[in-house]
Amino acid sequence: MKKIYEKAAHAVLFASSTVSIITVLLIILFLFREGLGLFGQKPIEDGQVLLVNKSNPVNKLTSDELKNIFDQEYTNWKTVGGSNDSILLFRIDDIFNYYTEEELAGVDTNMQLLNEKVSELVGKQTGMVAFIPEKQLVLNDKVKTIEVEPVTVSGFFGGELWFPTSQPAAQFGILPLLSGTLWVSLLAIFIALPFGLATAVYMAEIARPSVRNMLKPVVELLSGIPSVVYGFFGLIVIVPLVQQLFSLPVGETGLAGSIVLAIMALPTIITVAEDSIRNTPRSMKEASLALGATHWQTIYRVIIPYASSGITAAVILGIGRAIGETMAVLMVTGNAAIIPHTILQPMRTIPATIAAELGEAAKGGMHYKALFALGCILFLITLLVNITVEFISGGKRIKR
Amino acid sequence: MKTKKISEFIAFNIFRLLSLIIVLVLVAILSFIVVRGASVINWEFLTAMPEEGMTKGGIFPAIVGTICLVGGSMLFAFPLGVLSGIYMNEYMRATWFKRFMKLMTNNLAGVPSIVFGLFGMSLFVNTLGFGDSILAGSLTLGLLSLPVIIRTTEEALKSIDNTYREGSYALGATKLQTIRRVVLPMAYPNIITGFILSVGRVSGETAPILFTVAAYFLPKLPSGIFDQVMALPYHLYVITTSGTDVEASRGMAYGTALVLIMMVLVLNITATIVRKKLNKKLKVN
Amino acid sequence: MKKTIILMAAFLIAAAGHIQAQKIKGSDTVLPLAQKEAEAFMKKNKGSRITVTGGGSGVGISALIENTTDIAMASRKMKLSEKMKVGESGKTSVETVIAYDALAVIVNPTNAVSQLTREQLEGIFTGKIKNWKEVGGENMPIVVYGRESSSGTYDFFKEHVLNNKNYAPSVMSMPATGAIVQSVSQTKGAIGYVGLAYVEKNVKAIKVSFDKGKKYVAPSVATAKDKSYPIVRPLFFYYVTGSAKMVKPFVDFILSAEGQRIVELEGFITLK
């Protein structure tokens, strides 16, 4: 009887841990399966093609060139390696500029006619590039389609433009997002570090137990406040403050985000650092004091060096926390997808991008996959953070 | 000798000052919200439906929604997390696989909540077809707290000295008996504290529910697990950023923020009290 | 723990007696209107439930495609690709115009500039014009606010004012229209675009000209109705034919005189 009971309990425990393990693996699998699907795809909206005149020597365009063409930045085919001919843009709605309703009679009921007309038109205009649905494409011998270069890993990480919904060709360059994320979170740590370390040392070494008992809940509460509340506070208090303080044209900047993130990362830094300071062996402290060192000398000559690995871990975990923060950042940094030159510019971070854009991205589409790829990057950053912490602490228990 | 003392004096006071600033920051945030939110909060605010485009009425559906989500996620994550934690700490042999799993659970505990939202949306909402629903939202939030609960449980179990287990075995108890009668009662306070703190975290999360459950406006309470709900953190987010009249709904925003903070405050205090009480009880026994 | 179990059990029981509910999702521009309409509709029809969620026109339409909403609100027409996706799942979408909205270009009230041509707007939003002095204002940098790309307003403004060109990457994208109003009201050099209903005293709506500066028109309900204001767009409800029976009463309510009165009250433009 006992045996059966024992076995059953073991089975239940085993089953639940299997479920946990499977979910953990499933999350990783899911993220990367969707995210990696981005690469090698053509950044042109599903079911759409680009049509040009057969005499046009251009066969292939990058998404960057396409964007410039459709933004009318490039107006001559020479710029993209073609012949000297001005570029004429055509979108399906432009059809009425060339044909009258009568000529297109029954457009709605019989799309066929429309398509023939489009091909006819492109066949006549040598410089025209038409962006039309593939389904209704009717090829004749005077037109051809243009290839768009697929998204590459280097284009993804090195691209400077993030226009995921731009038509005809979306731009998936995450450099602005990546640099925005790093600027905001690294500055946040720089701001938080002196406060965090000082508080950790103060709580562990200097403060009386009664003061420490008062500080501990303060730190816990700081970590407990929901991130939207921080965002709300940041939007209403910190953003205008930053604007006035630096007399900027705009308050929604990386700096405002950094300040909010600094407050949010503080509890992590304080808890981990204090813990490692506390773990300094008593004997070492006493030896130092016995040699005539003051308490302060003991702290910065003995305790801090001893706890340095724990403190480093605290900083790295703090960075990890800051990089992943979503809502607060979304509300205060202004979200412009540019590569920042100073911290006083608006920035767009990776988590904020996912939160702002995921809803619109149709399931399975390029944009959707690109956002998953961003999720993978966040996951890998967290992994890197954790492995580094593991490595630094060398098996010592880090309380998080 | 004197300069030593002076430098110590300066250093300590700088530390004291910096710590004080942190306290002041918290006080600033809290008082900012409490002062402006307190006048908004009354019985009606807590129990009425929102009206007039979120500028009047209350936030009752958001409160109920958050309770549903917290309940649902804990119903799923707490038992699973604790049982897995027990298995991983007490039964699993120390192999590369265990180390890998530990790294992964640790990592998952640190993964940004928006990534959970990403996963939750693609698996629960789309692939499994739950749609935007309490079910999808709860599972997503549950997944978010699962690694945290597993880790808290493991930590709580690990902190129990092996001599207790050995003593129990020596008295002829089986492994299960040892876990149930000796190990778990001792780990109990820390596990419960972990649970309460997870509840606090789950109730304040916005990013994971954005695409899995949250609704902007819901006139009635949810009637089943496939309904959408409003939730406090999301509600705060939308009323600060949407609406035709942002200024008019500011009051509601302060009130909502205050309710959210009060919730976290109460949970934190409860966690501390529970931990103290249970630990004391344990020592008396 | 016990309490949560009881609570959950209560929900499961309640789920058995499920009432017919409809979900509405999409455009943030339509959101406040839909919410008010839903409030009024439910006051009249006690048994009905309407859930309203924002997120942007794109969000609503992709939810309609994925069958997670019954009605998609949109402040732009469905894109061809979206229509094709609806078609792929074997459904047909029904489009109903529920109201019109004038898109106002807003600046900070302290800004001296009070009128701009379409070409100037294009220059500002594509990043060619960077300082207010280039368009007759004082010497200060232009801070451009826009919506997230999920917004129908983003697309509509791009198509009709920017001549289909892409926004400059330096345009700050705000998660919702309310946030644009908030930011423009506290930023001196700011410019942004919002629905007419969102214009309030803390921001200034400027006159625009679409005929190269011959005639400037200020946005208002009247100018939108007589079509002299150029940036007016229809607001749509989309649903699939399969759910017509469920959503029709609500759609009809909005189109009714009573519903249109709410449209007017909210600062949108009625159908007639």
Describe the structure.
The complex is a heterotrimer of chains A (400), B (285) and C (272). Chain A is built from 13 helices and eight strands. In chain A, helix 7 (227-245) crosses helix 8 (254-278) and helix 12 runs antiparallel to helix 13. Chain A has a four-stranded mixed β-sheet with strand order 3-4-1-5. Chain A has a two-stranded parallel sheet with strand order 2-6. A two-stranded antiparallel ribbon of chain A has the order 7-8. Chain A is an alpha/beta fold and 400 residues long. The two termini of chain A are 42 Å apart. Chain B is 76% helix and 1% strand. Chain B has eleven helices and two strands. In chain B, a hairpin with a 4-residue loop joins strand 1 and strand 2. In chain B, helix 3 (60-91) packs across helix 6, helix 5 (113-127) packs across helix 6 (134-158) and helix 10 (232-241) packs antiparallel against helix 11. The termini of chain B are far apart. The mean pLDDT of chain B is 84. Chain C is an alpha/beta fold and 272 residues long. In chain C, the strands form two sheets. In chain C, strands 1, 2, 3, 4, 6, 7, 8, 9 and 11 form a nine-stranded mixed β-sheet that branches. A two-stranded parallel ribbon of chain C has the order 5-10. Chain C is globular. Classes of the chains: A alpha/beta (400), B mainly alpha (285), C alpha/beta (272). At the A-B interface, helix 1, helix 5, helix 6, helix 7 and helix 8 of A face helix 1, helix 3, helix 4, helix 5 and helix 6 of B.
Topology:
The complex is a heterotrimer of chains A (400), B (285) and C (272).
Chain A lengths: L1 H35 L11 E6 L6 E2 L1 H8 L17 E4 L19 H14 L3 E6 L9 E3 L1 E2 L4 H6 L3 E2 L7 E2 L2 H32 L2 H16 L2 H19 L8 H25 L3 H9 L4 H30 L2 H6 L17 H8 L8 H28 L7
Parallel strand pairs in A: 2-6, 3-4
Antiparallel strand pairs in A: 1-4, 1-5, 7-8
Helix pairs in contact in A: 1-13, 5-8, 5-10, 6-8, 7-8, 8-10, 9-10, 10-13, 12-13
Chain B lengths: L1 H37 L4 H5 L2 E2 L4 E2 L2 H32 L4 H15 L2 H15 L6 H25 L3 H9 L4 H30 L2 H4 L21 H10 L8 H35 L1
Antiparallel strand pairs in B: 1-2
Helix pairs in contact in B: 1-11, 3-6, 3-8, 4-6, 5-6, 6-8, 7-8, 8-11, 10-11
Chain C lengths: L1 H15 L4 E6 L4 H14 L4 E5 L3 H9 L5 E4 L5 H9 L4 E15 L7 E3 H8 L17 E5 L4 H9 L11 E3 L2 H10 L3 E6 L8 E2 L1 E3 L11 H5 L6 E9 L3 H12 L1 H9 L7
Helix pairs in contact in C: 9-10
